[in-house]
């Protein structure tokens, strides 16, 4: 499992919440149709914190002991006793299902605090919510999440996040960023935002975007798959993207960045989001050259090698940074 990152753990009634989440996962495994996607989401939740893994394994061990005890006793019982035991264990299973469902309902209805998740430069974190939704955070991202009886909301302070939302028409999931709101209509979408700019790429389903400022009615739109919405202080655009362009935007989920005929200065700016060792483009002429390729997000030296070997530019190492010029 990955190491514990305490900066990403919410300061709430955490022990009880983790125990409830672990019980929900165990109940799903034993009484629901369990898929590869469910297993991936569980693995992501276990990897978020050591406390998650400890709670889950403790409950799983208890469940396993109960199953073994029932099996041992059953071999020694008469048919009538087995029938009574079957009725009891069937009832107990029902109680377990109801208890786990109660845990889920309690979490869904009472989790009203804002929980803040952060990733460092170069970081990547997956969040599994109790409602079945999943959020992936990219490098240098701050996201606040609130789930309760009346609302499911997230606020992207800055950075980038990929949302895979479990649709609930009675409790729509709303993402706030840069003076806009993205409302899920059964959706997978990417949001990248800062203080004054938001970009939303719709991958699956539909989403509605509205501006917080009622005067900016032109900043509202319904997005369908392939739409890319960009809004800044003075402009707005909605363009169509190909499946390949969408895939390139999401390549960070597998630890890479894809450049397609990208100006070197823009490529360096994007690459620097993931690294503390920076790429510095020293002159405009070098910055205007175009670059193509797929690079790991955490390898500034590979970027410098392309500039030197493919574009025939001068590369100088200054401290931990790479300075590129004609």
First-to-last CA distance: 45 Å
Structural class by helix and strand composition: alpha+beta
SSE series: HHHHEEEEEEEEEEEEEHEHEHEHEE
**Could you report the average pLDDT, rounded to the nearest whole number?**
80
- Which percent bin holds the helix content? 25-40%
Biggest sheet statistics? 13 strands, mixed
- Uncertain parts: 1-12, 65-78, 80-111
Helix segment count?
Answer: 8
Overall form: globular
Beta-strand fraction estimate: 25-35%
How many beta-strand segments?
A: 18
Radius of gyration: 24 Å
Walk me through what this model shows.
The protein has 326 residues and is α+β, with helices and mostly antiparallel strands. It is built from 8 helices and 18 strands. Strands 1, 2, 3, 4, 5, 6, 7, 8, 9, 10, 11, 12 and 13 form a 13-stranded mixed β-sheet that branches. Mean pLDDT is 80; it is low at 1-12, 65-78 and 80-111.
List the helices and strands and how they pair.
Elements lengths: L13 H18 L4 H13 L1 H25 L4 H32 L4 E5 L5 E4 L5 E4 L3 E7 L4 E13 L8 E5 L2 E5 L3 E6 L4 E7 L2 E5 L9 E3 L3 E5 L4 E5 L2 H7 L6 E8 H9 L6 E3 L2 H4 L2 E7 L3 H10 L4 E5 L2 E5 L1
Parallel strand pairs: 5-6, 15-18
Antiparallel strand pairs: 1-4, 2-3, 3-5, 4-5, 5-8, 6-7, 7-10, 8-9, 9-12, 10-11, 12-13, 14-16, 17-18
Helix pairs in contact: 1-3, 1-4, 2-3
Overview features:
disordered N terminus; 13-stranded mixed sheet; 326 residues; 18 strands; 8 helices; 36% helix; single chain; 3-stranded mixed sheet; alpha+beta
What's this model, at a glance?
The chain is built from 8 helices and 18 strands. By secondary structure, the chain is an alpha+beta fold.
